[in-house]
Design goal:
By secondary structure, the chain is an alpha/beta fold. Helices cover 47% and strands 15% of the residues. β6 (171-176), α7 and β7 (199-203) form a beta-alpha-beta unit.
Length: 286
């Protein structure tokens, strides 16, 4: 199934993101997480993709196959392009087709001084256009409610996002954010710019203060005052931070759902307790 069909049916989706374990031997241990996630009946699960090296690609594919064939849930495979050339993308695409994987989240990828960038793809839109010419994938793209950290301004951001959609992105999944006001304003800007594809908000519960601070630094998400108080009050109390963080995320999600968004995409950090807690809180309203 291609995930764009969900929205043709006017369905509101629930989806999760997980990442492959760093060691092949740990792939077996992912089953505990997948068992919990798939009991919650998500519409799809996205699998992240590391930059550089065949082992990263292999673990992504193996995990996507496990999700699709052992758990009967549709996988969406992340694919970055900044450190790959066309022949490497062709090789990866061929494997996806052979394995029956139809959905790709096409990304530029983060710059890494330790990994050499190549010249074939400079933007996610370049990868999307290339994939659309080669294979019949359903392609999702990333979006940034508070602008990509490298964007000059909002106008430039909307122009680049529209280019991504015109290249073939059928669904957009947002970077994490902690203030829904930014997301609602972003949706309005997208519609004004003529971007009409489904846009899914990406939500990451606050359960690890150091991790969240690092992610916010990377993606440029704002720290609302209420969010700051949670971190300051509970960062040294793991159990309290988990409870407070889950409550904050649930309040975000409920506010999004009552405002008729297209779905919820949850960054699980491979923590099944996060997904279960969220789904218990929204079971009757999604």
């Amino acid at each position: 199934m291609v995930i764009s069909e969900l929205y043709h049916k006017k369905k509101r989706s629930l989806s999760f993101e997980i990442f492959p374990p760093k060691k092949d031997s740990e792939l077996k241990n992912i089953d505990e997480t997948l068992t919990v996630l798939c009991e919650l009946k998500p519409d799809f699960i996205s699998v992240t993709f590391g930059a550089g090296g065949g082992s990263n690609r292999n673990r992504t594919i193996e995990l996507a196959k496990k999700i699709k064939y052992e758990y009967q849930v549709e996988p969406v495979v992340h694919l970055t392009c900044l450190s790959y050339n066309k022949s490497e993308i062709d090789e990866f695409s061929k494997i996806l087709v052979q394995e029956g994987i139809q959905n790709v989240l096409a990304l530029r990828g983060d710059r890494n001084p330790d990994i050499q960038e190549k010249e074939d793809f400079h933007h996610a839109s370049d990868l999307i256009a290339y994939l659309k010419q080669k294979e019949a994938f359903c392609i999702a793209g990333a979006c940034y409610p508070e602008n990509h950290p490298e964007s000059e301004n909002r106008v430039t951001e909307m122009r680049h996002l529209r280019t991504k959609v015109e290249a073939g992105a059928e669904v957009l999944i947002s970077q994490l954010f902690f203030d829904n006001t930014y997301f609602f304003r972003f949706i309005e800007d997208c519609r004004i710019a003529g971007i009409e594809v489904p846009i899914l908000p990406g939500i990451m519960p606050v359960i690890n203060a150091a991790q969240i601070k690092r992610m916010v630094t990377i993606c440029g998400a704002s720290f609302p005052i209420r969010f700051q108080k949670i971190i300051q009050r509970f960062e040294n109390n793991k159990e309290a931070l988990f409870d407070a963080g889950m409550s904050y995320a649930l309040s975000q999600i409920i506010d999004l759902l009552v405002n008729d968004i297209d779905g919820i995409h949850l960054y699980t950090m491979n923590n099944p307790a996060v997904a279960r807690k969220i789904c218990e809180g929204i079971r009757n309203i999604i």
